[in-house]
């Protein structure tokens, strides 16, 4: 009897173990879908540097004769810097593998050949975007032809601020008219230059040209244009909120600023936008350039935001982008 009892226990244990092994053998659950609306495709270089996220947490007073004093995007002053990809293949393989694992679809602008390569390798992960920031980049006709050919679905990153120009500058007007007519969404850089010494690397850049109110004249001319303000117009929350209040089609993305500034500052700014009632108009984005691991680092910032509900996080990661870009949600499950 005692033996029988013992045997029954062993049998039970074996059954439990078999069930566990079986459940581990099942395919891992697919990550919920994420849309990263702000990714840059660059030609890789062996000289690109690693990155410490949140590198602007300490802004020292610098000496004009020693630019090395300035906080820089290329900074290794942290325990575990994100490694820069050194070749195009390394970047593509790492990025697309991460995108597959985390179920991320990316809106990508930048080097046309790199975008084509990524899109060929993973057509369901890449939404190509065409950026122009000045009428010297391409003619209006070439721009319209590129959009109507079907490969590019989005216009961006439009960054007149780096050219010392307002987004309402008349020289860009016809390009915006094309996007409005074709119903193509437009991403416009508004905000900081990011690296703490933009005055040296981009002498035409003006912080004042990142003011969200500068979009008003352009939006008045193009009332049906759908735009999203890249980098959420950081740090000008008041103007951003007023602009979104006045224009129902204006969204923002969180790119760049979510890994450049002190975490408390990032959360305070994001919380302010949500608190003001714009949780349905915030798009997730990274401003990813050459560090594939930045995808995970940036996702974690939103995941750890304890002031956001799970529904609000899903809106930021996915639902808002589906609405803004007219995507078919069922294709992402
Ligand atoms: Zn930008």
Automatic annotation (TrEMBL):
Statement: the UniProt record of this protein carries the keyword Flavoprotein: no
Signal peptide interval: 1-25
Keyword annotations from UniProtKB, A to Z: Lyase, Signal
DNA-binding in keyword set: no
Record-annotated Amidohydrolase-related domain positions: 35-327
Alphabetical list of InterPro entries matching this protein: ACMSD, Amidohydro-rel, Metal_Hydrolase
Gene3D superfamilies tied to this protein: Metal-dependent hydrolases (3.20.20.140)
PANTHER family linked: 2-AMINO-3-CARBOXYLMUCONATE-6-SEMIALDEHYDE DECARBOXYLASE
Protein name: Amidohydrolase family protein
Lineage of origin: Bacteria, Pseudomonadati, Bacteroidota, Cytophagia, Cytophagales
């Amino acid at each position: 009897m005692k033996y029988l009892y013992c045997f029954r226990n062993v049998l039970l244990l074996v059954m439990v173990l078999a069930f566990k092994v079986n459940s581990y053998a099942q395919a891992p659950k697919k990550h919920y879908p994420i849309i990263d609306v702000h990714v840059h495709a660059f030609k890789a270089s062996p000289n690109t540097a690693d990155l410490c996220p949140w590198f602007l947490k300490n802004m020292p007073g610098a000496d004009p004769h020693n630019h090395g004093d300035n906080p820089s995007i290329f900074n290794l002053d942290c325990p575990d810097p994100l490694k820069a990809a050194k070749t195009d293949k390394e970047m593509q393989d790492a990025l697309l593998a991460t995108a597959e694992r985390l179920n991320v679809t990316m809106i990508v602008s930048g080097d046309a050949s790199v975008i084509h390569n990524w899109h060929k390798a993973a057509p369901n992960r890449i939404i190509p975007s065409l950026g122009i920031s000045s009428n010297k980049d391409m003619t209006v006709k070439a721009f319209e032809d590129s959009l109507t050919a079907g490969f590019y679905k989005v216009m961006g990153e439009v960054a007149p601020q780096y050219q010392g120009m307002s987004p309402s500058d008349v020289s860009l007007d016809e390009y915006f008219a094309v996007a409005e007519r074709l119903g193509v969404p437009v991403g416009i850089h508004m905000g900081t230059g990011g690296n703490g010494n933009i005055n040296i690397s981009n002498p035409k850049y003006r912080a004042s040209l990142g003011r969200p109110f500068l979009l008003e004249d352009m939006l008045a001319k193009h009332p049906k244009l759908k735009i999203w303000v890249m980098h959420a117009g950081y740090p000008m929350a008041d103007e951003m909120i007023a602009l979104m209040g006045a224009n129902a089609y204006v969204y923002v993305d969180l790119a760049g600023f979510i890994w450049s500034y002190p975490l408390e500052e990032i959360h305070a700014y994001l919380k302010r936008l949500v608190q003001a009632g714009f949780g349905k108009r915030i798009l997730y984005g990274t401003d990813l350039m050459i560090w594939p691991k930045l995808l995970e680092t940036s996702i974690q910032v939103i995941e750890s935001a304890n002031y956001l509900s799970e529904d609000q996080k899903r809106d930021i990661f996915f639902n808002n982008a589906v609405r803004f870009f007219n995507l078919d949600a069922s294709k992402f499950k």
